[in-house]
Structures are given as C-alpha cells and as structure tokens.
Amino acid sequence: MSKLLVIGETRDGSLRNVTFEAIAAAKKIDSDGEVVGVLCGNGELESQANEMVYYGADRVIAIKHDNLKTYTSEGFGQAIMAVINDESPAAIVMGHTAIGKDLTPKIASKLEAGLISDATDIEVDGDKVVFTRPIYSGKAFEKKIITSDITFVTVRPNNITAFDRDESRTGEISSKDVEVTDIRTVIKDVIRKVSEGVDLSEAKVIVAGGRGVKSEDGFKPLQELADLLGGAVGASRGACDAEYCDYSLQIGQTGKVVTPDLYIACGISGAIQHLAGMSNSKVIVAINKDPEANIFNVADYGIVGDLFEVVPMLIEEIKKI
Ligand code: FAD
C-alpha cells in the first residue's frame, strides 16, 4: 500500500480548507493508499490532527519544535524531510498556497523528484496518475504525469472537493521528535493585515470591484452583498491602483488566483491580466454599464447596468430569501 503525505497548513491556529482538499487529492492519486497527515508547529497540534482524521487522513504525525513556531522553509523542510525518510511516501501533497509554493519545490529539488504545481484535477488512467493544471494564465490546461519515484503536488484551492467531515473517523495520531537546527531565517514577528471575514483565496463566493466602483465608499455595497452570500470582497488592480482598496484584495496575474463557485465582477472591464486570476471560477456574473466590456466574454450571466443600482437590488432580493 502506498503512503501519501499531506502537509497540513494552519492559519491562526486552524487548518486551512485546502488541507482537507489535499487529503481528497491524495486519495485521488491512490484510493487504496494510506493518507498520512503531517503537522508542524510548536504548540498544541492535537485538535488540528483530529480534524485531518475527520476529513479522511488515516493517521497524522505531529512534529513540535520551538523552531517550527512560524513557517520557514528551512525549519519545515527539515521536519518534512525527516518524515519522508521514515515513511518513504509515494506522494507529498499540499495546498497551492504561498507556503506550498515555497516549500514543495525546495524539498522536491533536494530529492530530485517531480513536482506538479497548481493541480486542478487528478485522474487515474490505467497505471498512470494524470494531473491537470492551468497554463498561460488559465487560458489552457495541460495534463502531466510524473516519472520520478516520489511525486510532489500542490493543489489549487477550491478545485478538488474535500470529503465530508466525519467525527466518527478514527486514526492514529503520533508525535515525532525532529532536531530542527541551523535556521538562518528567524521570524521575529508576524504582523497580519487585519482582514475580517472569509479568506479571499478560499472563498466560495467573491464579489469583486473594479475602477467602476469609483471610491473606497463604493466598496460598501459590495461588502454587504459578499457578507450576505457568506463570501469575500476582491478587486481589480484598477481599483487597488486608484486606492479604493488594499492590494491584498487584488485578483489577477499579479494578484491572487481564485476559483470560487460564484464570482460577481462589478465595474471591472475584464483585462486579460484580471481574467488570469478569476476566469476559472465556476459561475461568473458581470455587472458593467458598458455592453462591450470584455468581462462579458467570460461571464455566464451578464447584467448591463449601473452597479450602484444593480448591487442594491441584488441585496434587497437576497434579503427576502
Ligand atoms: P477599467 O479597465 O478602468 O474598467 C472599469 C470598468 O468599470 C469599465 O468597464 C466601465 O464600463 C465599468 N464601469 C464604470 N462605472 C460603472 C458603473 N457605475 N457601473 C457598472 N460598471 C461601471 N489587473 C488586475 O485586475 N489584476 C492583475 O493582477 C493585474 N496585473 C497586471 C500586470 C501587468 C504586467 C499589467 C500591465 C497590468 C495588470 N493589471 C492587472 C491591470 C489591467 O491591465 C487593467 O488595467 C485592470 O484590470 C483594469 O481594472 P478595472 O477593470 O477595474 O478598470
């Protein structure tokens, strides 16, 4: 039976959703394989380990060390290499997040192993595992196989459906001592921008505003709509450049890549660089007063109109439900 390591990623003490999607992705690689979760940190990891089990991990290895308090590729790299040496897994899977993008190539290159980054689907074809990933900023998809003994994969958030949480699932949780030394990068403090509500990169619904929103205040109805739908607010670079909102909200080629179930683009023209970050969303609704706006070419539903009239109407109607 092959072993499939899933590296858990936490934020503010809780596991990120993409970790649960990575567990499901591991099972797609080998449905009979043993999914082994790996958690690194310096505090209590038991509750996160249990969560990994509830979402499908067969067992979880928790590595605690003072040098694993915050993520560094050196620290986490040493911890995960130690698990790889012990377990000889067939695959290592994690989210295509800032940490996943940083950590997996470093370990894969040390092991001279193949890496599929940003996988959106995984299928088994005979004795081959075929990975799908977007290329050319999402305009095309390529299918790839890995020929090395170990496969590294990062999975794009919101693409592979996680298993349902099942509290009756049980699995062994063990701790492992690893000497994490020679850390040249020391994180003194993490100052996180205060962002309330749903994490943009994992949101199922995104209401995004562009230059058409016209001001910081113009984002308020978009926030209200996003809150009603349990979603997050995003933005085009046009809106960020105009200082209507923070750059942390930027979606696109040089911003975040998102694939929510529903993307509502308000006052966004649909420049190619913006589409690169959102065109793989499952359903796209565009609100723009210019019927020729390029965003309508990727939209499933288009509303030609003034967003300051359309968005309040949507809010009113949703409140009635
Ligand atoms: P505009 O193009 O100005 O469009 C505003 C739209 O709002 C128009 O279509 C207008 O009809 C509509 N509108 C105006 N008023 C209303 C109203 N009241 N109601 C309804 N509609 C209204 N852009 C990104 O978004 N993300 C990126 O990551 C990114 N990376 C880039 C990287 C590079 C190297 C370069 C060169 C550019 C990049 N850009 C990126 C910028 C991109 O090219 C566009 O300039 C930007 O996306 C435009 O933003 P916008 O659609 O908000 O603004």
Structure in a nutshell:
Keywords: Electron transport, FAD, Flavoprotein, Transport. The protein is of the alpha/beta class and 321 residues long.
Description:
The protein has 321 residues and is of the alpha/beta class. The chain is built from 8 helices and 17 strands. The strands form 4 sheets. The protein has a 7-stranded parallel beta sheet, sandwiched between helices. Strand 4, helix 2 and strand 5 form a beta-alpha-beta unit. Helix 3 crosses helix 4 and helix 5 packs parallel to helix 8. The chain starts with a strand and ends with a helix. The model has no long low-confidence stretch (mean pLDDT 95). The chain binds flavin-adenine dinucleotide. The site of flavin-adenine dinucleotide has 28 residues, from helix 6, helix 7, strand 16 and helix 8.
Which spans of ≥5 residues are poorly predicted at pLDDT below 50? none
Ligands (ions, cofactors included): flavin-adenine dinucleotide
- What is the number of beta strands? 17
Largest sheet: 7 strands, parallel
The radius of gyration is 21 Å
Pfam family, one: ETF_alpha
InterPro entries: DHS-like_NAD/FAD-binding_dom, ETF_a/b_N, ETF_a/FixB, ETF_alpha_N, ETF_asu_C, ETF_asu_C_CS, Rossmann-like_a/b/a_fold
Organism: Virgibacillus oceani
Protein name: Electron transfer flavoprotein subunit alpha
Which structural traits does this protein have?
single chain; alpha/beta; 7-stranded parallel beta sheet; 5-stranded parallel beta sheet; 8 helices; 17 strands; globular; electron transport; Electron transfer flavoprotein subunit alpha; ETF_alpha_N
